[in-house]
Specification:
CATH class of the largest domain: Alpha Beta
Strand content: 15-25%
Number of strands: 14
Helix content: 25-40%
Mean pLDDT: 93
Strand order of the largest sheet: 4-5-10-6-7
CATH topology of the largest domain: Uridine Diphospho-n-acetylenolpyruvylglucosamine Reductase, domain 3
Shape: globular
Number of domains: 3
Distance between the termini: 60 Å
Amino acid sequence: MSSRFGYIEAQSLQEASRLLLKHKDKASLLAGGTDLLVNIRNGNIRPQYVIDLHLLHGMKEIVPLPDGGVRIGALATLSQVASHSRVQTDYQALNEAILTLGSPQIRNVGTVAGNICNASPAADTAPSLLIYEALVNIAGPDGSRVLPIQDFFKGPGLTALDEGEIVETIDLPPYSEPAASCYVKLGRMRGMDLAVAGVGALVNRKKEVRLAFASVGPTPLRIKSAEKILTKEPFKRSNIEQTLQAVRKAIQPISDVRASGEYRTAMTAVLTKRALEIVKGRLSNRGISWE
């Protein structure tokens, strides 16, 4: 069903914020539009105004930070992020997550910021951002604020953004220690499908572990209780088995058209074990290994 709406090209971030505050839930932001336009076409949402951000060129950049991290502009496309040399070498889980997301055509217009602002529990970029402990830089009518990614997701389709607020950039902090990471995903088909389950894993040289998950709860989630079991001995078989039990207890997968909750629980354990094996191999390739 078609939907008519007013189209506005924002000239600045401040103007976009003011327009959002003025029109509230009657307005939607357009960045990549890969979700927005589909939802409008299907009648899932009916905005009276669509505010296009494409003129805000300063938000399209990916830049190094003085502390060694990387800042991703909210309008940088998924393809830009995945092909960035620092993302490919230092933030491999994010690179891998993006490459599982849709088709090249979708990645050429979609954005990481859009993926998290959609707040789907199955958001593929979310687990990698969680294991990197990314920071979300938010602009709004009352100024700017910084929010840890773990505090950004509030529920299916719900974020911590207040009225008039817009994600401006996402910061990937530097590692405190050399580390390896990965993202593994199970879908019904390769590409073009939401995750039945997804797992991001990171282990650093100090044997600290981070684990995050997609499509197994009301939001993307990091399970610190499972991480603690692996810390100091991340690849010990008995620790991995205890960790898998902790993961099974912590997740809350639903049953839907893609998979049953029981299947998601079983496959999340499989993917977690696989992710740890991949990270172990990558650490070994960097000359870091433990028995």
